[in-house]
Design a protein that fits this description.
Layout (H helix, E strand, L loop, with lengths): L10 E2 L1 H17 L7 E4 L6 H12 L2 E5 L7 H5 L1 E4 L5 E4 L11 E5 L7 H13 L11 E7 L13 H4 L3 E5 L3 H10 L4 H9 L11 H11 L9 H11 L2 H13 L7 H6 L3 H16 L12 H4 L3 H17 L6 H13 L6 H14 L1 H7 L2 H13 L1
Parallel strand pairs: 1-8, 2-7, 2-8, 3-6, 6-7
Antiparallel strand pairs: 4-5
C-alpha cells in the first residue's frame, strides 16, 4: 500500500479544520450505528490538540482527553480485571471513560505514539465505539491526532486495517488563522508581529507555533524587550532553533513599537494620537529604500518592507473583527477606520486592499467606502494605480 509519509487526506488550516470536523460530527450523529472517527495528522506543535478542543468548545459539547502513549498495559486501557459475585471475570471501567450521554468527543491524542499492543486494542474502539470491557455513551464521537510517520518521529506505523477505520486530514500552518487565534488568546502583540513578519520560519524542528507561544508568554512580563536584550536572547535560544532566535533578536532590535491589535484599532479613544503614529512609524521606517537596500545591512537579516506585509495582515484581521462589531462600539470603530483609510502615509495599494476587505466583511465596511471623503481618496488611488 503506497501512501505519503507526511500527509493523509485533505490539507486543512485551523480555520478550515473546524467546519470539516463539524460536518463529520453531523454525519455521525445522523448515523449513530456507523460513526467514523477522524484522525488529524500534522507536525509537532502545530496546534492539533488545541484545534480539536476549540471546535468542541464552540459546539458546547462534552470533551474527554486521552493520551494512549501513557498506557503500559492493556489493563490501563480496558480497566483492571476482577471476579464478580458469579465467578465471572469483569473489568473495572477506567476513571477517564465518559459516563454521561453525549454529544461529546473523546480525543485520542498522539495515537501513533502508543505501543503496538495498545493500538491493536484500540481498533475495536475505533470500529464500534466500544471495547470488550466498556462502551462510549450514546452521542460520543472519537477524534485522534497523529504525527507523520517516518523522519525523526518515534511513532508506531498504523497498518491498513486501522487506517481504513478512520477519516483522515492533515493540519497545516496558516499565519492568518494563527494570528486570529493568538490575538483572541491574549498572546503578546509583539510576538504576533514577529510571526506575521517571518511566517516562513515556522516549521523548523524547534520552531513551531507551540514553542513561539511559549517564548512570547515568558517575555510578556517585560514591557521593553530592547532593554532586556540579554534575557530575551536567553529565552529565544531556549525555545527556538538558532536561525529563528537570531531573526527574532534582529526583529527586537529594529522594532520601535509593536503593531496595535485589531481591538485597539477599533476601540481606541485617542486613535489619532496613540495608534496612527505607531502605524506611520512602521510604514516609514521599514519601507524599502530607493536602491532596494533599507540601510546597507544584510537584506536577509533586516527584511526591508516586511513590516508592511505585517500591516497588510493586520488590516485583514481588523476587517474580520470589524464585521462582528455591534452596538455602541460601531461609532468608534467607524471613526477610527475612517482615520486609517484616509491616512496619507498608507500606501495606495494597501488602502485599496483594506477597503475591499472591509466591504466584503459586512455593513460597516460598505458604510465606510460610501463616505464621501473615503470614496474620494480611494478613487484617486485607483486612478493613480
Amino acid at each position: 500500500m503506497s501512501r505519503s509519509a507526511t500527509s493523509l487526506g485533505p490539507r486543512l488550516t485551523a480555520t478550515e479544520l473546524a467546519p470539516f470536523l463539524r460536518a463529520v460530527f453531523e454525519a455521525n450523529l445522523a448515523a449513530p450505528d456507523a460513526r467514523t472517527p477522524v484522525c488529524i495528522w500534522g507536525t509537532h506543535g502545530i496546534g492539533k490538540t488545541e484545534s480539536v478542543e476549540g471546535a468542541v468548545r464552540e459546539l458546547g459539547w462534552k470533551f474527554q482527553y486521552l493520551a494512549p502513549a501513557q498506557f503500559e498495559e492493556m489493563g490501563d486501557f480496558l480497566g483492571m480485571p476482577r471476579v464478580d459475585s458469579q465467578g465471572r471475570t469483569v473489568y473495572a471501567t477506567p476513571e477517564w471513560v465518559p459516563t454521561d450521554e453525549g454529544p461529546g468527543v473523546l480525543l485520542l491524542d498522539d495515537i501513533n505514539r502508543a505501543d503496538g499492543r495498545i493500538l491493536r486494542g484500540i481498533m475495536q474502539l475505533l470500529q464500534r465505539h466500544e471495547t470488550v470491557a466498556w462502551a462510549l455513551p450514546k452521542g460520543w464521537q472519537i477524534v485522534a491526532t497523529a504525527n507523520p510517520e517516518g523522519g525523526d518521529y518515534a511513532v508506531t506505523a498504523l497498518d491498513p486495517a486501522m487506517l481504513t477505520r478512520l477519516l483522515h486530514c492533515t493540519l497545516t500552518f496558516d499565519v492568518r488563522a494563527w494570528a486570529r487565534w493568538a490575538e483572541a488568546a491574549g498572546v503578546d502583540p509583539r510576538g504576533i508581529d514577529f510571526v506575521l513578519a517571518y511566517p516562513e520560519l515556522i516549521g523548523a524542528e524547534r520552531t513551531t507555533p507551540r514553542t513561539l507561544v511559549q517564548l512570547f508568554r515568558f517575555l510578556a512580563r517585560y514591557p521593553d524587550w530592547k532593554k532586556e536584550a540579554t534575557t530575551v536572547a536567553y529565552f529565544a535560544e531556549a525555545c527556538l532553533d538558532r536561525e529563528t532566535a537570531a531573526a527574532f533578536l534582529t526583529f527586537v532590535r529594529r522594532q520601535g513599537s509593536p503593531l496595535p491589535t485589531a481591538a485597539e484599532i477599533l476601540s481606541a479613544e485617542d486613535f489619532a494620537t496613540r495608534i496612527l503614529p505607531r502605524l506611520e512609524q512602521l510604514v516609514r521606517a521599514h519601507a524599502p529604500a530607493p536602491d532596494g537596500d533599507a540601510d546597507g545591512e544584510d537584506d536577509a537579516e533586516n527584511r526591508p518592507g516586511r513590516d508592511v506585509d505585517a500591516l497588510l495582515l493586520l488590516c485583514q484581521r481588523v476587517a474580520e473583527v470589524a464585521a462582528t462589531t455591534r452596538g455602541n462600539a460601531v461609532s468608534r470603530a467607524f471613526s477610527n477606520l475612517k482615520a486609517l483609510l484616509i491616512a496619507p502615509f498608507l500606501p495606495a495599494d494597501l488602502r485599496l486592499i483594506f477597503a475591499r476587505e472591509l466591504t466584503a466583511k459586512g455593513a460597516l465596511g460598505k458604510r465606510l467606502v460610501g463616505d464621501p471623503e473615503v470614496a474620494s481618496i480611494l478613487l484617486a488611488g485607483s486612478l493613480d494605480g
